[in-house]
Amino acid sequence: MASEKILAQKQEVIDEIKDRVQAANTIVLFDYRGITDSESKELRIKLRESNSDYKVYKNTLMARAFNDLGIDLNESLNGPSAFAYGEDQVAPIKVLSDFAKEHPALVLKVGIIDGEKADQAKLAEYATLPSREGLLTMLAGGMMAIPKDLAIALDLYSQQKEEN
């Protein structure tokens, strides 16, 4: 039986995992076997650029934290697993997917996006979405097209009236 001190340390880690899960809009579990230390640092830098990060915890502690939160990811916690999290729904997924294209050793397992479980296919779908800034740019462009078209139509109408 583990000592009280060790149990307290494990409970602190479980509480830390639960806090990260509750604070994040997106979490992604991925297999990091075969990633070198320099590649790991590169991944961490890319994730931090998108206000995301990752951490490696023991699978048993992650399983206990997820079970305490009512999230069933036990089948995905086989083998080494890292835990990426972020406030943006798409940013950590895009960073991990792009990194996995360059480094095939990294494999996405499963994710939780706004409380919903996402398998590998769903994560791949999310990875193809434009970034938040890209979506806002598209929205602004679409919104600017309406007044521009109205201005052109009014100008053509006024030119037509002047000719008559």
Explain what the structure shows:
With 164 residues, the chain is an alpha+beta fold. It folds into two domains: 126 residues, Alpha-Beta Plaits (2-Layer Sandwich); 35 residues. It is built from six helices and five strands, in the order αβαβαβαββαα. The protein has a five-stranded antiparallel beta sheet, with helices on both faces. α1 crosses α3. The chain is elongated. The model has no long low-confidence stretch (mean pLDDT 86).
Topology readout:
Blueprint: H1 4-23, E1 26-31, H2 37-49, E2 52-56, H3 59-68, E3 82-86, H4 91-102, E4 107-113, E5 116-118, H5 120-127, H6 132-163
Summary keywords:
Alpha-Beta Plaits, alpha+beta, 164 residues, five-stranded antiparallel beta sheet
The domain count comes to: 2
DSSP summary: helix tally: 6
CATH-level-4 superfamily name of the largest domain: Ribosomal protein L10, N-terminal RNA-binding domain
| Low-pLDDT residue spans | none
Average pLDDT: 86
Instruction: Label the CATH architecture of the largest domain.
Output: 2-Layer Sandwich
Shape: elongated
Please count the beta strands (DSSP E, at least 2 residues each): 5
Oligomer: single chain
- Which fold name is given in CATH as the topology of the largest domain? Alpha-Beta Plaits
Radius of gyration: 23 Å
CATH hierarchy class name of the largest domain: Alpha Beta
Report the portion of residues in β strands: 15-25%
Intertermini distance:
97 Å
| Helix/strand order, N-terminal first | HEHEHEHEEHH
Which sheet architecture does the biggest sheet show? 5 strands, antiparallel
Walk across the major sheet and give the strand order. 2-3-1-4-5
What is the SS-derived class? alpha+beta
